[in-house]
Amino acid sequence: MTGFMRGFIRVVDRVNYRIGRVMMYGIFVLMGILLWSSINKTLFLPSLWTLEMAQFAMVAYYILGGPYSIQLGSDVRMDLLYGEWSPRKKAWVDLITVFFLIFYLCVLIYGAVSSTAYSLGYWGTEPFSFFGGLITGSEEIGRMERSSSGWRPYLWPIKTVMIVGMFLMLLQCISELFKDVLRLKGEAI
């Protein structure tokens, strides 16, 4: 079992590390969009797409970079008591609290999948079967949801990014759970 845990930790940490390192540069994409918007508003006619594209870029930056920040331990913690605890006590507390985070992420993923199915024109109550039907060819994409702004982009791409980011976050949380179990067993990670 520890071999499986170590392999899972190694694969998930490697994937999230690489994605996180790429997403670090997403801030420059966001800055470029906002710079273009400022120049365009000052010298030319304002663009319709810049504000919403900046929001989409920020969502991708934040959601896809989240697992990397958990991996590095740079997420926000209440350090009033936690900082003084022993590594074993920290592992026990982390082991318990990560279950709440995993449950929360599962709820978020279900909502994101439902929202993405809706954005692809599915009006039913079984979003997972809808995506399964898309793969097998028994379901069709309906009238796609668009933003209500003047630019009117389709919303399914950013909602798909949200699903991927939340799923990577879930995998990273399971990796952290496995790390805590190994710490409690006294094994090196």
TrEMBL record:
Subunit text: The complex comprises the extracytoplasmic solute receptor protein and the two transmembrane proteins.
Annotated keywords: Cell inner membrane, Cell membrane, Membrane, Transmembrane, Transmembrane helix, Transport
Protein name in UniProt: TRAP transporter small permease protein
GO annotations of cellular component type: plasma membrane
Regions annotated as coiled coil: none
InterPro entries xrefs: DctQ, TRAP_DctQ
UniProt organism field: Sulfitobacter undariae
Membrane topology: Multi-pass membrane protein
